[in-house]
Task: structure prediction
Amino acid sequence: MLFKESVRIALNALFANKLRSILTMLGIIIGVGAVIAMVSVGMGVREKVTSSIASLGSNMLIVMPGSQSSGGVRSAAGSMITLKYEDAEAIKNKIKNIDYVSPTVSGSYQIVNGNQNWNSTVQGVTPEFLAIRSLVVSTGSFISKNDLSTRNRVAVIGTTVSSNLFGTMNPVGKTIRVNNQPYKVIGVLESKGQSSMGQDQDDIVIIPLTTAQERLLGITYVRSINIQVSSPDKMDEVQAEIETLLRQRHHIISGKDDDFNVRNLTSLMQTMNETTTMLTLFLGSIAAISLIVGGIGIMNIMMVSVTERTREIGIRKALGATFNNIMMQFLIESVVIGVIGGLIGIAFGCSVSLAIARFGGFNTIITPAPILISFGFSVGIGLFFGIYPARKAALLDPIEALRYE
Amino acid sequence: MVVRRCEESGGQVNMTIKTIQLSGIKKIYRVGDQDLAALDGIDLDISKGEFVALMGPSGSGKSTLMNILGCLDRPTVGSYRLDGEEVANLSDDELAITRNRKIGFVFQNFNLLSRISAAENVALPLVYAGVEGKEREERALHFLAAVGLSDRARHQPNELSGGQRQRVAIARALVNDPHIIMADEPTGNLDTKSTREIMEIFEKLHADGRTIILVTHEPEIAACASRQLLVRDGRLTRDEGKGVRMEIV
Result:
């Protein structure tokens, strides 16, 4: 009964000082809004990073050659030429729990069609590349086992290459020239868009691994071997087995460094997740500071309100209001500021987040957690910062309060 | 208006029911390192149904006595029995509950809440008595009607004249049906006409059998009461008309 009455009294008091109430709430509105908007940006970044790592393929291990060193000077990672196509075959045949193994080589070349030319990355791959990278061929077909064994001059191109060389024409069946050698286009990949690093994943020309090694690059080694493991919990096990196998095959005696690296995309994903979670928390906590500042604003206004209404408190006490009655009245008043401010803040935060997504080019994700937490926080702040002024009011001596002018 | 001794009861209040019994009441304030006695040993009995005027110059201690009688304050020493119950040592909250149930206050400056309507002001003591909203409204309207302000129930205090405001305050004092009404200079801020209206209401309440304690420094106002008390330097120096009951003719 008295609770309902106190809420009514609180709303009346807030209405009586509209501007002041709104200014007080503004602190909470901005605080809650900022928390929601910032966290939604952080979550958006996180999701984008996660999904673009996932688009590389799930449960991926990548074997890269180690760095070459001559006379104590070590060159870049991947410069060793010890990783062979046969290593890939061995991994595929000897290690369990592996779905696909796809060795690749790559190089950058000028691609020519008639009077059009375009610089792109040429990748030499095996048919498994399609599955391991979750690529889809939109028209035509992908490289086959036959292409691989006969070192066919065929190519599958990405949409960026296609549009730059052929415009709107269908390139399938046409011939492009790579390093002055003719390649027949047998398929076009479906667009994958940009990667999280801003790389155009459609700017690619894919040819059979053997063709690339022998006809284009003139090498016998591979640049990387992509391995898809059948389940996420087998990753570490498979990684260890691959390391052992390759050390054997490369005759590396114990105590010497590996001449290759095995990279785990899942652990990369975990690292990225941790980073983006940190980013989200960082943004959120900066916003939370403004929420606390807003709480101090509530306390300030409640102190003024108690002083202003000393006489009212005296009257209420003379008429029989107890300590708890007065305490409750003022506490509810400050909680109501927190609740209303919090609700407006949620609306504000969500619209800012949507506006950022729409006009800022950022991906934002609104989740219930920051909304509930920041709302709970704002109500809690109203409660916490209301206690001192409310107590001050409730402890007033009725005689003194009645005499107050 | 003629006021005379009530004939049926032989002009006497029933002296056996003591509403207020004060004995040896002292209120001592410490100012610097000196003790200052605002009340210096007050013994006083007020029977049920008496109409008492409390007079005294400013600084005499009459406000302090009024505060103690009204359970707004506690004496430093002494015993105060209200309806036979010792209240001198009650806690703040117990005093608040006692005020709410047994005492109706009327102040010189009305002390109405300015942002709410007359009816809501009248209903205020019922809020703290835990009465439900609908019944509060009904009782508030009933008592507003009793003081002749039915048509002003929805007005805010600043839309009312001084006399009307004081009548709202009286309705508020009555709404929880207390049997003691404490009025502190209730006509101090009113003109002659309003003063007469207000005093008529008090006399009517007295005739209904309520105990009324009225603080005033105007002899004409004090004359309306049946018993006059004079406080000077913290002591009762005069007590006239004890037990007399008046009625309106």
About this structure: Chain B has seven helices and twelve strands. Chain B touches chain A at residues 67, 70, 72-73, 92-93, 96-97, 99-101, 105, 107, 111-113, 115-116, 124-125, 127-130, 132-133, 172, 176 (CB under 8 Å).
